[in-house]
């Protein structure tokens, strides 16, 4: 009964939160809208607290995927976002436990104890765990079927190879001899501001950039992207693996920070900010030259590899404590994007921005080629 009451409480609270959050949102009705893509959303969470003075609970950020360029009311504060995420996680957990205790255990589901023991005892060698889940993740979402994944090499000098711009915006990219040119367009008005609480600059309005998604998901595997980043401070070229539950593995190439690449990962059920990032040297300019950026994601570890050289490894077992491994395990998509990190002062500082739109109206980055190799143990490969 306690369980049922808690569940109802969580449901009601979620609905309340949603109604609060949705009230001011003005959904766009035409093609003349600007977008705030999911990459920028997640990056904004992941990076804004690199400024110690920026409180993640009070700084506002855009969380809806579509916002009209005239309506600037589509932001939630971090508190609401986190509360919502936690409630969703707890609610899922409750329901899972509820069904496990009231219904007969399905033979395809592993008992939690066994999974936890495996996670703890196997020291990272649990390749037989075909659910691909660990720790708490196995309780919240147990996937038993394989992911439909496509081994692919896309030559972006020819076409999009099945990748699609998230909102179908055709003005934000073009196919060129250098590959897919992603375009970040200036906002209608450039209004630089100073954030009174941090003393840092930001822009009142952000530019609009594209986000590309592939048709397929991949649960473990490898991708390599050949990219030339956008040069202007405040512009972020991103190539990431992102799951529907928020698990994420990233490269972020920051304008005005030549010869560096940033890496990060998030455990979707409890995304922590300013904790899991890394900064790595790149030999040669990330703006004026193409470099290859690889992520090799296995159940045991994540390797980040630039120009064929491993720059970082994160072992799954090093993410575990108290039987919970905070490691990305869910089927994810390779997402490519170019976004403006200028609208929140902490993010703008991290991104070496805000963008000075009086110098330029269009900022570009290029992706020439992308290969995806799905892990055959966890994916049905086409
Ligand atoms: C939403 O947009 C409509 C039409 O542009 C406008 O009349 C309305 O006041 C807006 N609502 C909010 C909450 O901004
Ligand atoms: C920030 O400071 C400026 C200049 O002192 C002031 O005009 C403005 O009202 C302040 N804004 C906020 C939100 O406090
Ligand atoms: C933006 O660039 C212009 C032209 O180079 C310059 O005059 C202006 O001071 C810059 N603005 C900021 C806020 O740096």
From TrEMBL:
Domain GH16 stretches: 101-366
Pfam families: Glyco_hydro_16 (PF00722)
Composition bias type Polar residues, residue spans: 128-137
Region (Disordered) location: 50-72, 105-137
Residue ranges with Basic and acidic residues bias: 107-126
Keyword entries, A-Z: Glycosidase, Hydrolase, Signal
Signal sequence interval, chain numbering: 1-22
Domain of life of the source: Eukaryota
SUPFAM superfamilies with a match to the protein in the record: Concanavalin A-like lectins/glucanases
A single GO molecular function term of this UniProt record: hydrolase activity, hydrolyzing O-glycosyl compounds
Any single biological process term in GO: carbohydrate metabolic process
The name this protein goes by in its record: Glycoside hydrolase family 16 protein
Species annotation: Phycomyces blakesleeanus (strain ATCC 8743b / DSM 1359 / FGSC 10004 / NBRC 33097 / NRRL 1555)
């Amino acid at each position: 009964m306690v369980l049922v009451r808690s569940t109802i409480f969580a449901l009601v609270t979620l609905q309340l939160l949603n109604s609060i959050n949705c009230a001011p949102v003005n959904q766009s009705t035409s093609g003349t809208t600007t977008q705030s893509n999911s990459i920028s959303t997640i990056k904004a969470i992941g990076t804004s607290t690199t400024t110690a003075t920026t409180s993640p609970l009070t700084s506002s950020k855009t969380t809806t995927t579509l916002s009209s360029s005239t309506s600037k009311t589509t932001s939630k504060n971090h508190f609401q976002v986190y509360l919502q995420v936690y409630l969703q996680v707890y609610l899922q957990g409750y329901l899972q436990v509820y069904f496990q205790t009231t219904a007969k255990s399905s033979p395809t589901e592993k008992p939690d104890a066994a999974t936890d023991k495996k996670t703890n005892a196997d020291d990272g060698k649990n390749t037989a765990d075909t659910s691909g889940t660990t720790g708490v993740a196995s309780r919240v979402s147990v996937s038993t079927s394989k992911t439909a994944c496509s081994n692919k090499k896309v030559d972006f000098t020819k076409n999009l190879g099945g990748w699609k711009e998230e909102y179908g915006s055709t003005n934000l990219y073009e196919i060129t001899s250098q590959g897919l040119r992603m375009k970040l367009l200036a906002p209608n008005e450039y209004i630089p501001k100073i954030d009174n609480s941090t003393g840092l600059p930001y822009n009142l309005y952000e530019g609009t950039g594209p986000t590309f998604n592939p048709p397929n998901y991949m649960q473990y595997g490898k991708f390599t992207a050949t990219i030339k980043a956008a040069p202007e401070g405040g512009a972020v070229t991103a190539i990431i693996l992102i799951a529907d539950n928020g698990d994420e593995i990233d490269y972020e190439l920051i304008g005005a920070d030549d010869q560096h690449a940033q890496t990060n990962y998030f455990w979707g059920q409890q995304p922590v900010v300013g904790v899991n990032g890394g900064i790595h040297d790149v030999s040669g300019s990330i703006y004026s030259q193409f470099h290859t950026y690889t992520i090799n994601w296995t159940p045991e570890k994540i390797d980040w590899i630039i120009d064929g050289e491993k720059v970082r490894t994160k072992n799954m077992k090093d993410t575990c404590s108290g039987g919970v491994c905070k490691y990305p395990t869910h089927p994810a998509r390779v997402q490519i994007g170019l976004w403006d990190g200028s609208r929140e002062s902490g993010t703008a500082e991290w991104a070496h921005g805000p963008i000075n739109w009086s110098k330029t109206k269009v900022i570009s980055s290029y992706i020439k080629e992308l290969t995806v190799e799905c892990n055959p143990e966890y994916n049905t490969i086409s």
